[in-house]
Structure formats: C-alpha cells, structure tokens
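Re-run with default settings, no changes from the original entry. Doing this only to confirm the output is reproducible before filing.
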Amino acid sequence: MTQNTSVIPTIALQRTELLKDGAAVTYGADATGGVVNFIGRDSFDGIEIQSSYKAIDGSDGDWNVGIIGGFGEGDTEVVWAASWDHRSLLNAKDREFTDLPYGTNPAPWSTLTNLAGWLPRGSLPNEQTYNPGSSTGAGDWGNPVGGVISDYTQESCEAVGGAYVNSYSCAYNYIPYYNVVSENDIYRLYGQVTTQVSSQMEFYVRAAYSMVDTPAQYGSPSQPVIRGPAIHQGATYQLYVPKSNPYVQDFAERTGYINNPAWAVTQGFTPVTYRAFAHGGLDVFAEDGKYSTPSKIRNKFAHIVSGFEGELDNGISYDIAATYNQENLYADSPDMMLYRMQEALNGFGGENCNVQDQNPNRFGTQNAGAAGQNGCMYYNPFASNFSQQPVYGLNNPSYVPGAENSPELIRWMFNERAARDLNWNLTFDAVFSGETPIELPGGNMGWALGGQWRTTENQETVTDPLYNGQTECQNPADEGQVPRDPSDPAFNGCTPDAPGPFQFFATNPADYSTQDQTSVFGELSMPVLDNVYLSARSGRIVDTIYFYQMGGLRI
C-alpha cells in the first residue's frame, strides 16, 4: 500500500498484523524494530456504516465515522470506503500535571519574558559600532547610567502567576498556553478494483486520498529574543526604548526611577532579556478562548497503485506493479521580526508608516518630529500593556487601561513563516518467486528475484522574501547590513550564516531535489528442518549503495 498509514480508512481493513521478534528475517534489515502489516478487504458486498465516540473530560470528545461499500459480479470485485476522524481540543490547563510550580518542575518555565529588567542609557553614540569587548551593548545604545530597573516587584510578578527569580527575570510557565490535544480532522477516501483476467492472472488497481488538518496548534504566545537588531551578538540588550516613547513616563513613575538623579541624563532603556508576549498571552491570532500564537498544518496525501499478479504454468509466481504517491504539506510557524519592533519602539510602527529617514548612518527610521504621527505607531514594551494573565484570569496590578498595543501593530511585527512541500515518487517493481527441485529435511528450497526502479522529486515553495532567505539580516540590505565575519572591520551585526530577520527562528530557502534509484535482489529460503529456516539475501541499489545480508536464522 504505502508507508503513510494515515491514508488507510480503518473500516477498509480486514485485520492488522504486528510482527516484532523475527521480523528482520522475513522482511530484511529495515524491519529490525518490527513490522506492522495492514491487510485490506479484497471483497465486500453491500454497505456498512460504523461510528464511535469517546467522551473525554475537559474536551468535546473524539469521534469517527466510516462507511464501506462494494459489489462483485463475475470475476470483478469493487470496494470503496470513506472515513472521518475528529479529535477535539483539550487545553493543557485542564490537566493538573501541566501546571506544576517553578520549584517542583522548572523545565516548562522561561525566564525570558515581557516582565523584564531594563538598563538605563545615556546618549546614543553617533554611529552604531561593533564592540565585542562590551558586555552591555554600549557600541549600539551608549553607556549605562545606572543599574537594572525591574519592571515588576515580587508581588506583581506572582500576581500574574510568575516566579520571581531576580531583578530582571520574572519566569512564566508557557505550558498552560499549549494543548494536550489539538483539534484535528483526518479525512480518508479509498477505492479498489480487482478482476480475474484469467485463471492465472489477476489485475488490480487501488487508489487512496487523505487529508490531515490541524487548523491551530498552539505553543508559547511568542518566542524569546535570542538575536535582534543590535549589532552586538547574543540574547541580551537587543532592543532600545527611547525616552521619547510615550510609555516610558509611566514605567519611570511606577518603578520610582523618575526620582533617581540619573533620570535627567537617561535617554533610553534596553531590556536585559526579553520576550514580547508571555505573562499576558496573545489573542490576536488565536481563536476564542485561546491566548497564544497558533501554527497551521495541513497534509494531503494521494496514492495509486496498479498491477498484475498470478502464477505461470511452471509454478512461478509474479507480481508486477506501478505505484504513484504524492504528498502536499502546508505548515507555518509565526515569529516576530525585531527590526520592525525596534521601528515601533521608536514610533515608526505599522504598515501605513512611511516617513523620511534623516540619519542613514543608524539602522531604522530616524525622524523625531514624525514619530507616532500620520499612521506611525509606538509600541509599549512594558508591564502596563496587558490587563491579566488570561489563561487563569489573574489581574495584572501594573496594567494601565489604554496602554495596550493595537492588533494592527502586532500583526505587522509578525510573519507567518509559511512553506509548502510537494513530494512525489513513481515506482515500477517486479517480483518473481518459486521453489527449486532441491529438497531439504524441512521441504523444498524457495527462491525469489526482483527489481525496482523509482524516481522521486521533492519541491519546497517559500514565496515570502522575509522567510525564503532573500532577507539575510535583521535590517534590510539597503540599509547596509549584509553577512560578514565578526572579524571583518566592516561587520555590523549580521553573521555569515545569514540568520534572517526573525528573533528566534531561521530563514528557509526553498529546497529542490530529485533522485532516481534502481535496485535488484535475490533471496533463498532454506527449510533446514521443520522448525529451522535459513534465509540468504543479496541485493544491489545501483549507483547508491550495495548491501548484502546473510544468515537470518528463524526457529
């Protein structure tokens, strides 16, 4: 049939065989871990409908519906089947084992969150420079003028379900945003026609189609910053919030920094580490009742095989067939572009923001008089931008009504990172088998000879220039950022691996490959005794590898 078992409607199966011990003797070295055989129904008369439902606490339950039909007249049998399997959403928060305290199980907790510690900075340097000797990114953002300022207290951190770690880390548990089971649908169609051409030959054709659809697979609301628009490398101090950002004033008042003498010389702030969406979730891309950023996955699979099998007059059996498989996979995994976030922190966020850059020596738009005006928006990175931890409804004491970031601005900072993979293969194979006149104590020796030719093509399509590798760095190439070695005097933040514009994930240049393969094999089965069999197999895969297998012993 096919290695993709999702294509087979359960109702079309006659039985399933599981062979673990000794599988390699019968099926070769690839079967060392065991073999599962799906045996389909070769004939069926009438129509049969099956359905089942499983009730699950916290979920709408799982169910399936299957129908099979068939008829036979003379030497021809026709069987068809269809099925639909559905799994309902089961939220992680509905299972207690997913939400253990930080001290019990710190594994699903992250210290890179939106409740961060911020380092105050003096004046920006006239030009951003790479300074590997600075641990605070001074070449990008200027020298610090004070110590780290926490955007939270232990009380406000714990109020939204966080774990207070230190002055710049209020850890959050990302598992409650996940699903134990994602909503999933599997649709299957199957058809088979067999006809007896003669007493020694049967013709068959089988076709199948399946679609596995997961419309929303949830994870963390957003990924952490592990690289960003700063020239210096690493996960720290990658973003800069100028003092002109209108949300800075509340941050300074709430934390008391406005009373610090250093406030007068402070020109901006950089987070030690950061994740834009964590404690407050993110419902912009989510369905009702969910608060994180989903991925969409849809996999379509088609299969058709046709051939002849039977026995010649001399007792030699044969099976000659052609098989075609095609898989069409769509998947996305959204991530943020920190170059755009930096633009929004400076007041130049949003699709409709288009103003003149007055300082081309610095990455991003520099035009203080136009910031936050005429379609340009500011981004609020501080704790005041969310009202509650939404999964459990825990109110945020630092929230300021009206300080939320607009969905329009958030969408502009994300990219869906979508790709489509189309894979197909065409296979022709023939197998002949029979018995030799050589008789051993356990019976006559058997033999088999076969050959196969297969051609395969794999093609990936990634159309978005932000994801397909055309955008090599955080900042656009027209701003002068191109991949260079850090030892290059002209290095300005983009490493030779061309990491792309995303804060966490890499780019995905589209792949294309083809492969042609020809193989032949021969096998002997020697029944040494009634309960002892010795098999010998030799084969060759042309132009790829050679393999030989000898001495599978079965008792």
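The CA atoms of residues 532 and 555 lie 5 Å apart. Residues 1-88+181-217+301-315+324-333 form one domain.
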